[in-house]
Each structure stands twice: as structure tokens, then as C-alpha cells.
Design goal:
Number of domains: 1
Distance between the termini: 14 Å
Number of strands: 5
Number of helices: 8
CATH architecture: 3-Layer(aba) Sandwich
CATH class: Alpha Beta
């Protein structure tokens, strides 16, 4: 069934999982990739942390168990989408290697592509459009990834984009150039 849907859509389904600290640029790059791929005729869905917490995962908090369950559910949605020929661009902090391994297992190694959106914490704090880092520094938020909760650097991401060095346009071009060969339709 998947092969028929991919043939119909003229694309190969894939889960592009973008991880990195809050403020690294994941959501911006996901939105740009969505626009670029849609302009090229691909069917893409963006799954973003902020949006998921408003609906599907509304009842989950920020404990380690709730964060893991949040990401497990998202991985299941992305897996189901890939089975139906859809390209998913997923944008979540995804702080630990064990969680990323769980996601890779759920999605399937052949469908999962890990992109590390890397920016130093000081740059992330400068970009803090939501005021989260400020609230952490004031003691209003606890267990914030990168400050008082760990972020484990990915060991072997398929692609690392250093948004502390590259601007948004350069980062978006690099991401698009990397993703296109993965999703372009070739009959099997």
C-alpha cells in the first residue's frame, strides 16, 4: 500500500527529525523546508512541539516521563504518516540519546533522518522570542533543557546545521539540498 501511495504522490516518505536546543532555529527551518518542498510539489506535514502540546499531547506536563511520552506519541504519528507516503518534518528538542534511539526504533531506521540544529546556548538565549530563558534565569521555570536539564549532543546525525554560524537562508538551503535526494521519487 505504501508503494502505491508514494507512486501516487511521486515522493518517497521520510521522517526528517530536527533536534536541538530551544532557540536553535528548528521551527524556522522546519517551516522553510515545508514551504520549499511544497513549492516543489511534495506533500509535507510539519509536526512542531508547540502545536502538539496544544492538542494531541495537551494533558502532558514536563516531567521526564511526560517528555518521553510526548515524543513517543509524535514518533508514532510520524511513523503512520510515512506508511501513508507523507513526508514529516518534526521539530522537537529531543534532549537525550535514549529518546532519539526510541524514536528511531518506532519510526524505523530506513525512514528516520536525524538533523541536529546546533547553536550555542548563548545564541539561543539571544534569540529567546518566547522569553523562556529569561524565565529560567529568574527561577520561574525549572528543568529547562540546556540549563538545568541535560541536552546530549547527537553522536551521528545525518546532518548538522550550525545556526550559530550560518544564517537562516544558508541553513535552509543546506537543509533542502540534503533532504531532496532522500525524498525524490524513483521507482523501486
Amino acid at each position: 500500500m505504501r508503494a502505491r501511495k508514494e507512486a501516487l504522490l511521486k515522493q518517497h516518505a521520510r521522517v526528517i527529525w530536527m533536534c536541538g536546543l530551544s532557540g536553535a532555529g528548528k521551527s524556522t527551518l522546519a517551516a522553510n523546508l515545508d514551504n520549499d518542498l511544497t513549492d516543489k510539489g511534495f506533500l509535507v506535514q510539519v509536526i512542531d512541539g508547540d502545536e502538539i502540546r496544544k492538542g494531541l499531547n495537551k494533558g502532558l506536563g514536563y516531567s521526564q516521563d511526560d517528555r518521553r511520552e510526548n515524543l513517543r506519541r509524535v514518533a508514532e504519528v510520524a511513523r503512520l504518516s510515512a506508511a501513508n507516503g507523507i513526508i514529516s518534518v518534526v521539530s522537537f528538542i529531543t534532549p537525550t540519546r535514549s529518546i532519539r534511539d526510541m524514536i528511531r526504533t518506532i519510526v524505523g531506521n530506513g525512514d528516520y533522518t536525524e538533523i541536529f540544529v546546533n547553536a550555542p546556548i548563548d545564541i539561543c538565549e539571544q534569540r529567546d522570542t518566547k522569553g523562556l530563558y529569561k524565565q529560567v534565569r529568574e527561577g520561574k521555570i525549572r528543568e529547562f533543557t540546556g540549563i538545568d536539564s541535560p541536552f546530549e549532543m547527537p553522536e551521528n546525525p545525518a546532518l548538522e546545521i550550525n545556526t550559530g554560524v550560518l544564517d537562516v537562508q544558508q541553513s535552509s538551503i543546506r537543509l533542502l539540498e540534503f533532504v531532496l535526494p532522500l525524498i525524490e521519487y524513483k521507482e523501486l
